[in-house]
Amino acid sequence: MIPKTIIEKQLTALSASLAPIREEIFLWAEQNIFLKWGVLSRSKFCCLECAHVWKPSCADTCAKFTTCPACAGKLKMMPYNQVHFKETEYFAVVETCAGFQVVRMVIAHKHMKKNFTPTYFHKEVMQHWINSKGEVRTLALSTNVFSSTLDAWKFYSLLEIKPKDFIRNAKYYINPFKVYPQMKTLPILKRNGFKTSVYDIAPHLLFASLLSDPISETLLKSRQLNLLQYYLCASRQNIRRNWQAVKTVIRNGYKISDVQIWEDYLELLRYFNKDLSCALYVCPDNLHEAHDHFVKKKRELFRKKKLQDLRLEIEKAQKRYASDKKRFFGLLFTEKDLSISVIENVRDFMTEGDDLHHCVFTNEYYDRKDSLILSAKMGGESLETIEISLSRMEVLQCRGMKNKPSRHHRDILRLISENLHQIRERMKKKKKKTKKELA
Questions:
Q1: Which of 133, 127, 137, 130 minimizes the C-alpha distance to 162?
Q2: For residues 350 and 361, is the Cβ–Cβ distance under 8 A?
Q3: How far apart are CA 210 and CA 216, in angstroms?
Q4: How far is residue 180's CA from residue 95's CA, in Å, rounded to a whole number?
Q5: Taking Cα atoms as reference points, which of 420, 373, 340, 388 lies closest to residue 150?
Q6: Cα dist from 208 to 28, 98, 125, 131, 231, whole Å
Q7: Which helix (H) or strand (E) holds 72?
Q8: DSSP per-residue codes, 354-414
Q9: Structural contact between residues 302 and 362, judged by C-beta atoms closer than 8 angstroms
Q10: What is d(CA 9, CA 157) in angstroms, rounded to the nearest whole number?
Q11: Beta carbons within 8 Å of 155's beta carbon, 6+ residues apart
Q12: Is the separation of the CB atoms in 264 and 360 below 8 Å?
């Protein structure tokens, strides 16, 4: 994009004046952001870090990790044997320039081959420029729009200014694996509570929020780091709505173990008209037990007092639910005995909540427009309930019995990730039909 406004021309000129990232930073990245890998080839261990090859004393010693006798590195074993291996990570360098906070994003590739030491490639792909008001403008390399990956950077292109709506692009939310520890930050950031750590939050998101949003500043200064991470990183959160309860948490120094469960718990407290400024309710000793208690209480209330009304509500809700989500009905992902399917009936939401003792029905997840709810089953028994964001196409929650992961949790997440494209295709078909109807 050609810079047109005064600020765009200023940032383009300032970006060109930045010094290249130093070699010592690249060396730090090579030593700190990558794993050390090993591979078992022809009954021999090959260290992909120092190229040492040795034969194990026992064939059963091949585990997930082993130690190289030459470089003493703890090697993670490759699950497969091939000639070339590659690992990719991002890291960030934090600087200041002309009153702006600058976050420089660098992609790093580690190329490995048996019997050779690894080689590295580093390239700065993005710069976030943040002013003292928390406004962010970004410069980035071009990407291959026909690629199936998000970050197919054209390394031969130049950093160019992006429009303001670039904030809606998924590339904007890339979170570096590590940040170079020698950071230069604006004095106002230190005043607003920032010290030395970004707490696994993308630096530009943290800095922009600290400069523009008093909620982030309050959460950071009160050391409510779980709430801060959830507030800035979760695609669906209600920290502002629950601010009265958050203040109660801060006053009592209460640490929330699972913020998603805590917010669901607050919805239950609201349903029963409990005081959200009362620490007895807001700061339970055992969050999961308190959550389950009110879920059970609400479920019993539904069954005892409103059984007939509940039937009518389910019928009305089924019509709304079918109208919103009918295009996803019939989706089924299977792998061996594991099957994941879209929940097609509101009554099944109640069954799912009863079987797994969670709040997918009592908190009316079927009415969430942006959410698609699926059920993972094995042998006809429910294992976990999955909530997917349709706008961001990501898994928001995946919870089993009493909101805890089942022993098949990883397989379920992997199977969902491998089949997200099918959900995306159903959404595209709906859009095409809508366009034809309008035409």
A1: 137
A2: yes
A3: 6
A4: 10
A5: 420
A6: 26, 17, 20, 8, 13
A7: none
A8: HHHTSSTTTTTGGG-TTEEEEEEEETTEEEEEEEEETTTTEEEEEE-GGG---TTHHHHHH
A9: yes
A10: 18
A11: 123, 141
A12: no
d(CA 217, CA 141): 32
What one-character DSSP code corresponds to residue 58?
S
> In the prediction, which pLDDT does 380 show?
87
Largest distance between two CA atoms of the chain? 73
Question: Phi first, then psi: what are they for 196, rounded to 5°?
Answer: -135, -10
Q: How large is the C-alpha radius of gyration of the chain?
A: 26
- Name the 3-class secondary structure at 47: strand
Compute how many other C-beta atoms are within 10 angstroms of the C-beta atom of residue 383: 25
Pairing of strands 381-389, 44-47: unpaired
pLDDT above 80: residue 58:
no
- Residue 341, judged by CB atoms within 10 A of its CB (0-12, 13-18, 19+), counts as middle
Place of tokens 């990956």: 149
The whole-number pLDDT of residue 430 equals 61
Distance CA 339, CA 376 (A): 6
- Cα–Cα distances in angstroms (integers) from residue 122 to residues 18, 23, 109, 225, 263, in the given order: 17, 10, 6, 31, 41
Percent above pLDDT 90 for the chain: 69
Structure token pair of residue 3: 């810079």
Distance of CA 344 to the CA centre of its chain: 27
The predicted model gives 362-391 an average pLDDT of 92
Please provide residue 77's backbone torsions phi and psi, each rounded to the nearest 5 degrees: -80, 130
> In degrees, to the nearest 5, what angle opens at C-alpha 289 toward C-alphas 286 and 293?
135
Q: In the structure encoding, which two tokens stand for residue 228, read together?
A: 């801060």
Give the pTM. Answer: 0.72
Q: What is the DSSP string of 104-153?
A: EEEEEEEEEETTEEEEEEEEEEEEEEE-TT--EEEEE--B-TTSSSTT-B
- Report the Cα 41 to chain-centroid distance in Å: 35
